[in-house]
Amino acid sequence: MNRRENLKLLLASSFGTGLILSGCGSETEKIAHQPAFGEFGSYGRTPEEIKHNDLLNSTTFFTEEERKKLDILVDIIIPADETSGSATDAGVPDFIEFMMKDIPDYQTPMRGGLLWLDHKADEYYQKKFVEISQEQRIRIIDEIAYPDKATPEVQAGVRFFNMLRNLTATGFFTSEEGFKDLGYVGNRPNAWDGVPEEVLAKHGFENDPKYKDIYLDIATRGDIAQWDDNGNLIA
Questions:
Q1: What is the pLDDT of residue 144?
Q2: 182 and 103 Cβ atoms separated by less than 8 Å
Q3: What 3-state class would DSSP assign to 105?
Q4: What per-residue confidence (pLDDT) applies to 93?
Q5: Whose CA is closest to 71, among 53, 92, 56, 50?
Q6: I want to staple 84 with a disulfide (CB 3.0 to 4.6 A). Which of 9, 64, 127, 180 is the partner?
Q7: CB atoms < 10 A from the CB of 109, how many?
């Protein structure tokens, strides 16, 4: 599947219904996952959240065979390209593993969908999904990857793949690999060396030669200015 076509599908699917993290689970679950304020601030984890996460990380949801299947699927959705690595490079399977335990409502649809793929592989090729070729896998995925073209007989597969695609997109685009793919660099410090001379001149001003080497020195921008009793800048 073409990487850029995949991203269009991911965005249309994720933003059309809201990213998977913002639109699923019960109201109680949504409230429980709101950031904590007050003593611990709005970032990081409270002791209760740390304990909860440690408990989830101490258990495993996917079987070994399911995990192999998941690795194949997420890399079909987001393969590596010249910009960034694949979904598995970004740790998406680990993210999905965590989400299965954090929101148990996902477990039955996920496990059922993975089993559905084996049924399809057996129907077409008399093998399990992990045993067939990549070309054969794509044939099955193409039947459920495009909801507008999918037949009524595969709607269960469509719902599963929509969920998996949303989880994959969320996991990938909140990872370092995803940021790299988007070209996002975040907040970066810069250095301001004053209003350009040509701009000042245009308005009839200029930097005071007496002080500009002091207050426009990038190396001392973190220093606190000092003034004499007459209001003159010392350093």
A1: 96
A2: no
A3: helix
A4: 96
A5: 92
A6: 180
A7: 15
CA distances from 1 to 7, 64, 87, 97, 219 (A): 10, 25, 14, 24, 51
Task: State pTM to two decimals.
Answer: 0.64
68-91 burial, b for 16+ CB within 10 Å, e for fewer?
A: ebbbbbbbbbbbeeeebbbbbbbb
DSSP states of 35-81: PP-STT-SSS--HHHHHHHHHHHTS--S-HHHHHHHHHHHHHHS---
Could you tell me if 124 and 111 are in contact, meaning their C-beta atoms sit under 8 angstroms apart? no
Q: Which stretches of the chain are assigned E, i.e. beta strand? A: none
| Two structure tokens written together for 134 | 């990549």
Is residue 235 a contact partner of residue 214, using CB atoms and an 8 Å limit?
yes
Token pair in block for residue 181: 């793919």
